Amino acid sequence: MHLKKILLAVASYLCIANGLFAQDTTSAAQHLMNQMENGQATYRTRYALATFKHTHVVDGQSVETLPAHVLDFRILHRFGPLSSGIYNFFGLDYAPFNVKIAFDYGFSDQFMAGVAHGGYDKTYDAFLKYRVLRQSTGAVNTAVSVTLVGTVSIGTLRPDQIDPAVKLDSGAVIHRASGVFQVLIARKFSEGFALQIMPTFVHADNISFYHPHHDIWAIGIAARQKISKRINFNAEYYYQLPGTQAPGAHNALSFGMDINTGGHVFEILVTNSIGTTEKQFITETTGRWGHADALFGFNISRSFHLGKQNK
After folding, report:
1. Across the strands, what pairs with 218?
2. Which CATH superfamily is domain 45-305 in?
3. CA-CA distance, 144 to 133, in Å (whole number)?
4. Tens digit of pLDDT for each residue in 101-120?
């Protein structure tokens, strides 16, 4: 009887000890798993999302690119200057307003292209855009996003529509073409604020504006401030470096309020530039804010997904 009690006690002790050991082992394993998951999270790369809410800020490009297989259809509208007075309803009744129709397409998440036609100076333009770097933290720590943009535009005004003060070298396409190259460098400082600088080189034609220097350098700066979940305030300014600015040309300054409705992005804007291509608003802006030459306008964007969407 004593032996049986002793064996029973030993067996009970071993069962209890085994349960406690299993519990400790499970707890330790879970703790180790948590540590590993936390470590993996630390070494994941977290990218900055929506530095700007669209591929364009106001007139110019942003560092954003379209997702792969997305087509973006845009309509840009510019009215007349405020200085046209009450008779023209401060530019809203102005007859020679400017409308631009644009189609942009994302070939990949980093590369996109676009084509467009603008009524102002009968201009066709096209661009290629490639995102080189994307702001991130974690495993890969990148302070800024960097995107390269190259744009070419061709003015198709008839010779009798060209200002006699502007020199028309030839009717050949090469003399009607201009090119713009930009490096866009942006940083999202917080969920609500982002800043972008834009070193810019422009090779201008002499069809719609007289440029004593065909090669023009400029620095642009743009900013976005979030107002609410769907509303953002945007600002954009281009400064032309001294020595290359054409006579009568001024620096472009634009402000916009974009509203994201889910399917559309609608931006109400005010600017001193009537042109909508880079060459026009960077180097050929004649309006001055101090002379009430600013004008109202708007941009409308609608995106369509043409590829297979992941479920």
Report:
1. 200, 240
2. monomeric porin ompg (2.40.160.40)
3. 7
4. 999 999 999 999 999 999 88
